[in-house]
Amino acid sequence: RVVILRLGHRPERDKRITTHVGLTARALGAEGMLLASNDKGIKNAIEDVADRWGGEFYVKNDVSWKAEIEKWKEGGGKVCHLSMYGINLPDATEDIKSCEKLMIVVGAEKVPTEIYDMADWNVAVGNQPHSEVAAVALTMDRIAQDEPLRQEFPDAELTIIPTEYGKRVIDNKIKE
Ligand code: SAM
Predict the structure, then answer these.
(1) What predicted TM-score, i.e. pTM, was given to this entire model?
(2) In DSSP terms, which residues pair with 4 in a beta bridge?
(3) Which residues are noted in the entry as S-adenosyl-L-methionine-binding (predicted)?
(4) Is 131 annotated among the ligand-binding residues?
């Protein structure tokens, strides 16, 4: 069970990347994303994709990051903060993999320093600067128990039939 906490989203400039953090997390098996800023457009855009493509991914808009982390930890969950300054992912994978309830925290600009102390792990996806989307994707792939790219998304309106050339999409509404 994985949930993403997105910090520092600036509605005027981070819309696309925050949407991609959410969509990537969903595609790799997270149950939802908590957005520590107020941007209902992000919630609507991601939940709209989830409605059409299946599964039950949610976005909780405008949360207090501190309250969410505290609540998560009280409920027995662990927190993995992704930061290029942290322990390198290959050195933490086994430990994180054994955790059944994981919150993955990603920032935008500078994250509050308190996060580093509240996290159970501060993990770098390589100690070089890159992107929160890539950091989420690689982490979720490495800590997954089953192949994350083979999961099913129930009750989808649209389903892709993988094909070598071209595009094949089934519209399940028409099929019924
Ligand atoms: N300059 C910011 C700082 O010093 O925290 C980092 C900005 S970076 C574009 C935005 C987010 O991407 C970070 O908060 C972190 O969650 C994630 N990120 C970027 N590179 C990363 C890396 N190598 N490992 C883990 N997370 C990374």
Answers:
(1) 0.96
(2) 33, 104
(3) 82, 107-111, 125-132
(4) yes
